[in-house]
Amino acid sequence: MSASTNINTKDIQALVKGIGLHWPKGRFFYCRFDNAAAGRALLRHLCPLTSFHDLKSHHKPDVCVNAALTHTGLVALELNNDLLYSLPEDYRDGMRRRASINGDIGVSAPAQWEDVWANGQVHLWVGVYARDEKLLEDWASGFDQWIQSNAGISVIGMQDVSRVVSSPEVPVYIDDAKSQPEKPVLLEHFGFRDGMGNPPIEGLSDKHIKGNGRLGADGEWQAFPAGEFVLGHVDTNGEIPVAPKPEAFARNGSFMVLRKLAQDVDLFRSYMQGQAEKLGQNADAIATRMVGRHRNGTPLMNSHGDYEFRYDSDPEGRVCPMGSHVRRTNPRDSFGADFGSLLVDRHRILRRAITYGKLVPTGESQVEVNGDDGQGIMFIVLNASISRQFEFVQQQWVNYGNDFNQGNDRDPIVGTRVGADKMVIPGDTGAERETVICNELQQFVRCRGGEYFFLPSLSAFEALSSDACDWRQGNEMPA
Questions:
Q1: What is the pLDDT of residues 364-380, one digit of tens each?
Q2: CA 109 – CA 114 distance, rounded (Å)
Q3: Which residue among 246, 274, 367, 425 has its CA within the 20 to 30 Å range from the CA of 287?
Q4: Helix H segments across 252-409?
């Protein structure tokens, strides 16, 4: 593939940009088709998808629609074997077969996943985001009518999603009211600001927020080359990464990881309260140190705003613990400037998650608020390489702590519990705060299913929908 300094945002799906608060209501449809003709008809019905460019226009759409295919979906479209086998092994394997890599064991093991994720039956993810509930239901109703009138196509599962924003009317603190965010911020269900830390991308980001990118040799923050997240473009090594063939299929696409992560809010709060009683601290202070940020998103480190900070002045994690969630998932310069590119930059991910379920107010139980459906995050990651980016972070930083001098101790928030897990929270040098150990960490988050998808460009998606598609079996693979 040849490099290009110009990125066609009209050819890139909107999800790459991030579908934000302008479209707070959403629904995911998990689709299956019985044969290639039915699959192409479904793709044609969804064309044109919402593009990156559409979100930047003055006349923003009322409803955004994006779509991505599993490997079994591409096989069901009867694509040329040369194309199918040019796809990377991690994607072809799928998430279920790589459960051990991702720490999906115990309560998160594939045998415990929701039925929709069994037997590779999902072919297509359709993500619909709308300005309000009525617009969403109108779109869904029309889609359902179309499905019912077309043979060989079915929706085998759905998931409602939404953005949740903090407010004084819904307290999310545990025992310290002062920890409640004062200004409205996007939240996840443990009550911490969500959607922070995504890297700016050269040629795609509207503005460069200092601190979200990568540290250059001069100590200044830089945007990431597009090729780290979008195929067919230069990456941080100055190269065009290996991608599926032909170029027209891969270019401007990305590999998407989707995981349904259930959050046990009751367990999270009760554990923090128990540790607070044992250690003589308040529960919200302990939770903050485990997460690595305050509830409103303010860093524990001294910073310029919410993003521009470094860890080089805190090598022992006395300000922001080395084992905290945000430091594990984006270590910045924790390993020293000489190893930044090797151990951090090549493993960054583009996070496009959205929550499901309602916030559980302090003093109420999750069953009272959300019933048996519970609450959590539909965790979505975009990357050029699933194994180098998502799986590396999941295996080496979330579920193994050696890079952070944590030994076998895992991420205290999302790590997979395998026994008597703990987190050491160091005290400060002035002894105003003693070192404490939080023992017997609990499984606050569990995986309920998911899959690896390919998010094509709009042009590739349209080509896949055509009955005259050059990439089908029996056709000679174009260059």
A1: 999 999 999 999 999 99
A2: 11
A3: 367
A4: 265-279, 283-291, 325-329, 340-343, 366-370, 392
For 169, other C-beta atoms within 10 Å of its C-beta total 6
Reading the block at residue 171, the tokens are 């307290």
**pLDDT at 58 (0 to 100):** 86
For 455, list phi and psi in degrees, rounded to 5.
-100, 95
Distant-in-sequence, close-in-space partners of 95: CB < 8 Å, separation ≥ 6:
102, 104, 257, 259, 450, 451, 452
Q: CA 104 to CA 399: how far, in whole Å?
A: 10
- Cα separation of 274 and 270, whole Å? 6
Q: Is the pLDDT of residue 443 over 60?
A: yes
Is residue 457 within 8 A of residue 9, CB to CB? The reply is no
pLDDT tens string 58-76: 889 999 999 999 999 999 9
Complete DSSP assignment for 295-327: TTS-BSS--BTTTB--STT-TT-SSS-TTSHHH
pLDDT, residue 450, reads 98
Report DSSP state, residue 434. -
Mean pLDDT of the chain: 93
Among residues 456, 474, 446, the alpha carbon closest in space to that of 111 is found at: 446
Contact (CB, 8 A) for 306 and 299: yes
Please count the residues of the chain. Answer: 479
Instruction: Give the E-state strand segments of 43-135 in sequence order.
Output: 63-69, 124-130
Q: What whole-number percentage of the chain has pLDDT above 70?
A: 96
b or e along 286-313 (b: 16 or more beta carbons within 10 Å of the residue's beta carbon)? bbbbbbbbbbbbebbbeeeebbebbbee
Residue 477: how many other CB atoms lie within 10 Å: 15
User: Strands 376-383, 254-263: parallel, antiparallel or unpaired by DSSP?
Assistant: antiparallel
| Cis, bond preceding 24 (omega within 30 deg of 0) | no
Query: b or e along 236-257 (b: 16 or more beta carbons within 10 Å of the residue's beta carbon)?
Result: beeebbebbbbebbbbbbbbbb
Say if CB 4 and CB 12 are below 8 A apart. no
**What 8-state DSSP symbol labels residue 108?**
G
Q: What is the largest CA-CA distance in the chain?
A: 72
C-alpha–C-alpha distance, residues 202 and 373, integer Å = 40
How many Å apart are CA 249 and CA 245, to the nearest integer? 7
% of the chain beyond a pLDDT of 90 = 82
Q: Would you say residue 113 has pLDDT above 70?
A: yes
Q: Has this prediction a pTM greater than 0.90?
A: yes
